[in-house]
Each structure stands twice: as C-alpha cells, then as structure tokens.
Specification:
The structure is a single chain. With 292 residues, the chain is α+β, with helices and mostly antiparallel strands. The chain has 4 helices and 19 strands. The chain folds into 2 domains: 116 residues, Roll (Diaminopimelate Epimerase, Chain A, domain 1), CATH 3.10.310.10; 141 residues, Roll (Diaminopimelate Epimerase, Chain A, domain 1), CATH 3.10.310. Helices cover 15% and strands 39% of the residues. It has a 17-stranded mixed beta sheet that branches. It has a two-stranded antiparallel ribbon with strand order 9-10. The termini are far apart.
Length: 292
C-alpha cells in the first residue's frame, strides 16, 4: 500500500483577516433581539436595503430591530436612538430596545439613570440593583387621530374583525397598537391573522397586532405580531398597550405582570398617564458588520 503523502514543506496558512467594518453588539429583552451600533463618534448611515440584509436571520446577523445610538438632538437627552425594523422601515419607538440600549450606555458611563431621545420623545430610564431596567414609555394616547386610524372611531371598541379576532382596543405607545382580547392566545393563528391586520386600511401607518388573555386582575398573557418584524417573543410597547387596553376595559388594574413568549414584563400605568415598563436585558454577542 502506498504511503500517504505528508505535506512536510507546506507553510501553514492563516484564515484570519484583519477585521474592518462597524462594531455592533447583539442584545435582547426576553428574546426580542436587537443589533445595536454605537455611532456617537463615527456616523453610521443605513438605507432600508442594508438594514434588511443585517436583520436577515439566514444571511445576516439577524434581529427584530436594528438600533443606532447617535448624539442627542435635544437638550436634556444623553443619546438619540434611531430604530429600524427588520423590514428596513424606520419607527419611532421600541420598548425592549430602549431598555437594552439604556443598559449598554449606562454601563459605559457608570450611571444608573439615563434620558434617551427617540422620534417619539424623551424617555427616562433607570437600572435597579437586580439588573433590570425600567423605562418610562411616555403617555398612552387614545384619540383615533393619535393612533392613527383612517376614520373617526371609539378606540375602546374599534370596528375591526378578522376570523376569531374582533373588537380591539387601539392604543398609541409611540407606535400604533391594536389589542384583541381572547379566551386563549395559544388558539390564535397569529402568523395567519397578524400580517393581514397589520396592513389593514384602517391603519395608515400599519399597526402592531396583540392578542391578550386575562389570567387575573394583575396578570395578562400576550402574543404580538410586530409591525415590520412579525411574531416576536416579546414586545415592550405591545405589553404597555395591552395593560392600558385591559385597564381601560376594566379587565385589570393599572399594574400588571404581562407574560410574553420570552418571559415576564412588569407594566404600570401611572396616574399621570405615563406607562412604566420594567424587565431584564441580556447581551448575546458582539461582532463587526463588514464594510465601511
């Protein structure tokens, strides 16, 4: 039998190339995941095509939202947070993303309080001793023009139905939400009904679609079809909207644990109409986005 040829004289080859590109950190709040880029010193401009490529879970990094941290635009803010959905569209608010970014920035500057500026306004954030982060999501808005809806309606009982879903409550938490109350969230085919309702003509800016089940006066079960992202394991603004909707209907009090697919969020609708959301955050990994 012939002896195997041994590559004695072959020089070892390195497969490691110098990294060039934009650093990022992958974070999540109960599985609602984000690619976060710190652009406070080096601008990072995104177009929808590149945003979709980064968010793609098969060929990119994968995320529900891409978040860019920028210098603040308003006095009193520590940073500005730009948010792009997985479909490349820019949106004004993201509750879990705000908590993740707050934790990241607070860790870098050694503080437990932060003011984040978004297109939806200034958001106060605070980190507690147990590592959870709370964000004041601002006031819940109920007028049909604030959602917005295409026609004048009572937002406590919106004239909208599809399959087993009907009679939602509309709430704006910096972004539009429609919350449907059901007997069993597990029985609802959210992948079937969510995209149809998201793009319904009643919602000129599309909408996040939540299905909520009342478990007790202080516990809600929630699943969300997120506008521009699809089914998500957790939606912070959706949890806020669900609590506000339930309290307006008299189904719960103004403080509730909202159970999402990824875990639990504590939501409180304060007397000044602001909504406070508290929950855990986590870092998945860090890397570099190729290119300039």
């Amino acid at each position: 039998m012939a002896a195997a040829i041994q590559p004695k004289d072959r020089e070892p080859r390195s497969v490691t190339a110098p990294q060039a590109g934009v650093p990022f950190i992958k974070m999540h709040g109960l599985g609602n995941d984000f690619v976060v880029v710190d652009a406070r010193e080096r601008p990072f401009v995104l177009d929808p095509v590149r945003a979709r490529a980064i968010a793609d879970r098969r060929t990119g990094i994968g995320c529900d939202q891409l978040i860019v941290i920028e210098p603040p635009q308003s006095q009193g803010a520590d940073i500005f947070m730009r948010i792009l959905n997985a479909d490349g569209g820019e949106v004004a608010a993201c509750g879990n993303g705000t908590r993740c970014v707050a934790n990241f920035v607070m860790g870098g500057i050694g503080r437990d309080r932060l003011v984040i500026e978004t297109a939806a306004g200034l958001l106060d954030c605070e980190r507690s001793d147990d590592g959870r982060v709370a964000v004041d999501m601002g006031p819940a808005r109920h007028d049909w023009r604030d959602i917005p809806l295409a026609t004048a309606q009572d937002t406590l009982h919106v004239d909208l139905a599809l399959g087993p879903l009907s009679d939602p409550v509309a709430v704006n938490m910096g972004n539009p939400h429609a919350v449907f109350f059901v007997a069993d969230v597990a029985a609802i085919d959210l992948a079937k009904y969510g995209p149809v309702l998201e793009t319904h003509s009643l919602f000129p800016e599309r909408a996040n679609i939540g299905v909520a089940q009342v478990l007790a006066s202080d516990r809600l079960r929630l699943r969300v079809w997120e506008r521009g992202a699809g089914i998500t394991s957790a939606c912070g603004s959706g949890a806020c909207a669900a609590l506000v909707a339930a309290a307006r209907r008299g189904l719960t009090g103004r403080r509730t644990t909202v159970i999402v697919d990824g875990g639990e969020l504590e939501i409180e609708w304060l007397k000044d109409d602001h909504v406070l959301m508290t929950g855990p955050v986590a870092i998945s990994f860090a890397g570099v986005i190729p290119g300039s």
